[in-house]
Design goal:
homodimer, about 675 residues, alpha/beta, Ubiquitin-like (UB roll), Nucleotidyltransferase, domain 5, six-stranded mixed sheet, about 30% helix, Ferredoxin (chains A, B), 2Fe-2S_ferredoxin-type (chains A, B), RACo_linker (chains A, B)
Chain lengths: ~675, ~675
């Protein structure tokens, strides 16, 4: 009589022979097959659902009989009747092996499930969260063999989950005894182990079996904007995303003015720390409310940010970051309690992970971009530009990666622009200007219609037309350049020079009337000479950073450009290249990747392995310091022209022919190339 | 030419050959000789002082020449001129081996120095503190190889002190950069590693070289009294000792009334937790002030306490400790931050260690007594009685140790006694009654004179005579029993029955006038029938606990009795035995050990090895539960008589012959044997 059977798991292909009667979950565990279970095989959680295959499997050389698994039992019947189950599925902890069988583990039953990402340029992510739920049955106290309830909980974790070295903070110890007694000595714990922690930590405890409700916040803490994703820690789903302005803006628009504020005002850094922590706390509340979950169900927060924001978040005076040698107080990743950051809205026991910084000007946000975009695994030479108030740039491939930051200022985020605003309904986000008539058309956020389309007025009546956001101003300036309204030096032509009545004199300069506002639909929206100058400064800094990395790498051309940033997905590659924001490249090789830093934060939130990986990667990224590099200033000056004073843009020339007017009537230089402070 | 020499260290006897020119400190380290150094051999700290021996050492077979060490150098000259140095001493880091030499390491130059204790019954203690000072030279930041200041500090700790795995909380990271720059990249850190910690933690940082000033608090948190010792963590010296009443007394005098308070009043446990933490915080302030140090220089606190106080200190509702099976929320040792306990007066980064509990009624205080008195290493069968509101008892020897607790109530601490007070100047602490005249004489705290001595009135004029403390009431009752004023059942005789006018009628009972107070020197002090009853209840509980342990051990006699407790040193063994507080034993084998729990706390404060040892020991101590043991009640009732209703006290009979009057005029039992609640 044959008393064992062959069990083959797909998609892993793992196989082994097991005694008849072995539960499928037990077989999976013995083979190291990734099959989830929260209740530890007690038929409660249903996480271990599997799909047995029947019939002939030529590939595996087995034929699976109809009775290869034990018949449905009462636990499965009960579960299906109450909670429902997909036809053909079984509970892995209940179904027993009775003959050779092929068992498929569906993605949702895997702990380390792959989260398929939408964008082709981004890699998939494997779930490996630091916090998970475990259901336990704890021994009752015995007066003859006295031991603490916590010690018996630890024993249950060791016996039932092979987890040892457990810690619990006082608030959990306080709740432990009532929970155990209410649950009849059965409890569910949220157990956390960060990638540097020596011990597991109990973050929460519930009487009996508890399902779901572990959330994490991935925060991209920018100089201008704080963006966050609320994710389900079980499967990585993004439940809500939200952003707020960084309230530190009132202390200075760019990083260096905040460092100055800290230097000039005793306690100024503390003030800024308090402001940003309060904003993050409020953001946690509002994003949780948007997703319909309690903020106290947030158990983990991952932060990515530039070094100045990093220090201000942690409560470290950023003064050393304002002067050479730009020494970070600490560069490694940081694990701490959310309460250390005064984040009182999230769970009392919530843990925080801050990605490592690369250098004094290249922060955890750049590390997050590297984690999301993986230049270190790229076959071709890729330039990744994370557009923000402080831009981070990465250049490299699998053999070498360079990084730098560049002080672009907040112009790309709509700040320092006369009609600038952040990306919100009513903001102009797309612009086209007819080269012949010089007449514009545009789209505003909240409507898919062009401003010249029928029904546009009605469609935008609610939001109005309130200003221009970052992607809008990039397109407006590039379109003005293509339409001959702005010359290579960035000067706006007059009505006479351009033949367009939309050119309005403003003192000694001119502005282009993009939208003639009214009482009904908002203000007059102009693109002024000051706006052009702000964009020129920003794009020059960006280009100069890229160029410096290319010098260091010894290359004149990159194979691929990735535009990232909070509004990276909204930047038109063609317009970015017309502006000369990025080095010349075939337009088909320029991609918009969206908020790669935020994506990196999300990956780190969902995966301890990713945290380990990026910590290893940052040590191999070579940082190029722009602040003290004379060539940076040279590149910056040369990049002031639109698209560039000296560099040829052959790929751009293949698709766009730029008119070359000159509106300089003063015969002298302008201030477009003036040096500016890092910001 | 011989290019190395023999170096012999005493008292360790370690020896080795070293190249000529090797500093003595280097040789000591290579051999694992315990030679202290804070500055790492830079001639700053002078902790590595050694005493070279010269001439012939027959025992070691060497002759040490006068030039066996290098001549005095400028560092030593400078140190000696500024700070002074004992003649014959050298700095181990400066003196180099130039020939065979015998080098003595004086006790004060040893890290693991032995602290010689005064009492013969107590063991010596070896310093092995969890927090120590280390002086470091940190690399300056390098823009080409960017790294955080903290990462370079960690590198210095690894390179210069072979310490890895370092953590620092945010407040330290905040202070790191200014300290490094102020100290010219030289700093001293206070580094902590508890016995369960995976990582070292920087608790404090100072620019440059910093000496001394690491203090610890050993706290014996009793139901009635909170006693603390302030110790220097470098050498274990006790700088100050102080005690305050536990403010929880207002919620209930004994433990069970506090548990009841928590059960009856929602939030009552929180209220009690707040009260006791505030009292500890205040005690830290006052004890530091008494020692003339800042409370913020307290970096470690060790707590010992009974289980109910343990839970109330930690903020855990003690309700489960009030009912079988008396389950502790946690029994293991606990390491946490002082801030977790709201102890804001001590250093922000101060760490707390709470000794493990043995069982639901046998707490960390009992563990501390075991650590101090080491019954598990005793050759003879020792009974250790820790007298307090809740008494802990240990019985055993090197082969087996039993423990139990007994609810004595606060009578031994002067509470529940009509003229009771805590031990303070003015309290009667010694009593003698002349068996013939029935006249008393007594001593009060603050004077060495008997009340019958000339000059007594003047000596006590300042304090007055204010009441009776614990040791005083024990002696008073025992003396009354010996003088025939109290019978074996505990009844006080009348003036007629005893022939003494000091017997005063109080309703249907009598009281003994110990001191006739006046306007000048305080109240009338009587020993009432109620006082006798309170002492009977307390001593019966104590005896019953001891007897229960003896039953469990299968013995009828113990070899040795140790009286411990906050006032253990003040209890007269003879009087204790007349009362029947303890089982009969040869009087020469009854010792007063002082506050053994407090001593255990001090040992744990000064030694990580001791923490490891007691954690291992408690797992081997077998707990006997008195609360549900019917024999405990039987023993308790039988022990109500003075000294005992049934047990013979042959050793006591050898030294004292007790009169056997009977003052029971009612012909019926009294209430002395009534059952009482645990407390």
């Amino acid at each position: 009589m044959i008393d064992d059977a062959l069990v083959i798991f797909t998609p892993s292909g793992k196989r082994g022979r097991f005694a008849l009667g072995t539960p499928v979950l037990t077989a999976a565990r013995a083979l190291g097959v990734d099959l989830d279970s929260v209740c530890g095989g007690r038929g409660i959680c249903s996480k271990c659902q599997i799909s047995p295959g029947y019939g002939e499997f030529a590939k595996h050389g087995v034929t699976v009989a109809a009775d290869a698994l034990s018949p449905w039992n009462s636990v499965e019947e009960r579960y299906k009747s109450i909670r429902g189950m997909i036809d053909g599925r079984r509970l892995g902890c209940q179904a027993q092996v009775m003959g050779d069988v092929v068992i498929d583990v569906p993605p949702e039953s895997q702990v380390h499930k792959q989260v398929i990402r939408k964008s082709a340029t981004m890699r998939d992510m494997v779930m490996d969260p630091a916090t998970r739920l475990l259901y336990l049955e704890v021994d009752e106290p015995d007066m003859e063999e006295p031991s603490g309830d916590f010690e018996r909980l630890c024993k249950a974790l060791a016996d039932q989950w092979q987890v040892s070295d457990i810690a619990a903070d006082l608030p959990i110890l306080r709740r432990l005894q009532p929970a155990l007694r209410k649950g009849g000595w059965k409890v569910t714990v949220a157990l956390h182990k960060g990638n540097h922690d020596a011990r597991h930590r109990v973050l929460d405890i519930w009487p009996g079996y508890h399902e779901g409700g572990l959330y994490g916040l991935a925060v991209d803490l920018g100089s201008t904007t704080i963006a966050a994703h609320l994710c389900d820690l079980a499967d990585g789903t993004v439940l809500a995303s939200a952003g707020v302005m960084n309230p530190q803006i009132r202390f200075g628009e760019d990083l260096m003015s905040r460092v100055s504020y800290a230097m000039m005002n005793p306690g100024g850094d503390v003030e800024m720390t308090r402001a940003v922590r309060a904003a993050i706390n409020d953001l946690a509340v509002s994003i949780a409310s948007e997703a319909g979950v309690a903020a106290t169900a947030i158990y983990e927060i991952v932060f990515v940010c530039n070094p100045v924001m990093h220090h201000l978040l942690l409560g470290i005076d950023p003064v050393e970051l304002g002067q050479a040698p730009f020494a970070l107080a600490t560069s490694g990743s940081i694990s701490l309690d959310a309460s250390d950051l005064d984040l009182a809205a999230v769970n009392l026991a919530a843990r925080v992970y801050v990605l490592p910084c690369i250098a004094g000007h290249v922060g955890a946000d750049c590390a997050a971009v590297a984690l999301a975009e993986e230049p270190d695994k790229s076959k071709d030479m890729v330039l990744i530009v994370d557009v923000g108030t402080n831009a981070e740039l990465l250049l490299g491939n699998e053999s070498r990666v360079l990084a730098c930051s560049s002080p672009t200022g907040p112009a790309f985020e709509g700040a320092q622009i006369s009609s600038g605003q952040r990306a919100a309904p009513g903001a102009i986000e797309r612009v086209e200007i007819d080269p012949a008539t010089k007449e514009p058309r545009f789209k505003v956020i909240g409507s898919d219609l062009w401003s010249t389309d029928p029904g546009f007025a009605e469609a935008t009546a609610a939001s109005g037309i309130t200003g221009i956001c970052g992607s809008g101003i990039i397109e407006a300036v590039a379109e003005m350049r293509m339409a001959g309204l702005v010359d290579a030096r960035g000067l706006i032509g007059s009505a006479e020079q351009t033949g367009s009545a939309r050119m309005q004199a403003e003192g000694r300069t001119h502005a282009y009337l993009l939208h003639d506002g009214s009482a009904e639909n908002g203000p007059r929206i102009l693109v002024t000479q000051g706006d052009i100058r702000a964009i020129q400064l920003a794009k020059s800094a960006l280009y100069a950073g890229a160029r410096l990395l290319m010098d260091e790498m010894g290359i004149d051309q990159v194979d691929r450009v990735v535009l990232a940033g909070a509004f990276g997905a909204h930047i038109s590659p063609k317009h970015a290249m017309v502006l000369g924001m990025i080095p010349d490249a075939p337009l088909s090789h320029v991609f918009s990747a969206g908020n790669a830093a935020g994506t990196g934060a999300r990956i780190a939130l969902c995966s301890r392995a990713a945290r380990d990986a990026i910590e290893a990667t940052v040590t191999r990224i070579h940082k190029v310091e722009t602040a003290i590099e004379p060539r940076f200033q040279e590149h910056f000056v040369a990049a002031n022209a639109i698209p560039h004073a000296t560099a040829p843009f052959p790929e751009l020339a293949k698709i766009v022919t730029l008119p070359e007017p000159s509106f300089n009537t003063h015969g002298s230089g302008d201030d477009g190339g003036r040096k500016r402070r890092r910001g």
